[in-house]
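Researcher: Batch entry, complex prediction.
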Amino acid sequence: DIVMTQSPDSLAVSLGERATISCKSSQSVLYSSNNKNYLAWYQQKPGQPPKLLLYWASTRKSGVPDRFSGSGSGTDFTLTISSLQAEDVAVYYCQQYCCTPRTFGQGTKVEIK
Amino acid sequence: EVQLLESGGGLVQPGGSLRLSCAASGFTFSTYAMSWVRQAPGKGLEWVSAISGRDGGTYYTDSVKGRFTISRDNSKNTLYLQMDSLRAEDTAVYYCASHEDSSGWYADSWGQGTLVTVSS
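Model: Structure tokens for the complex:
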């Protein structure tokens, strides 16, 4: 199984400041046949289901604010919130969808400092 | 608009069975892959199972193989998860999720979830 490891487990950022979350996979999730990284990011607020933010590592889902961006390739990925807003308080998960089982990272909790 | 509504959760004794349902609307259900993802109380997300929209191929995480069965009824726009031989560690909120992109099964829509509690 591909193990997804996020860091940090939690972080506190001031409003308007940048938040950065790392996600590392134990195997590459880059398919050479199509040059795509099978990596998604989700946001989960308390009491709510997860919500898709980004897929193919860096493609923002329609309607997701552009302060959310994704980068990386192969085994190392980053989710960046460029200017943290109060409504961004949530737990963020990465997931690889190249291979079964389609494993998630353990989650990173983002709070306001 | 994609809508997913899970049902069928509840309290069950260890060794018992439950069948979860996920009623889908707002999209062409038969063409979408679908998944079940669970979340134990206070824990992270765990992918459980998926089923293809095209050929009905099924996939499972190791911990539920032989105990859970995913299926779909495209005439009823409904996804199912038959859960047998339930264990305490299966206690979780179970979410169904849809995958519009057949080339990559990222979960673009999620239901609200249904709680399964396995306890004596």
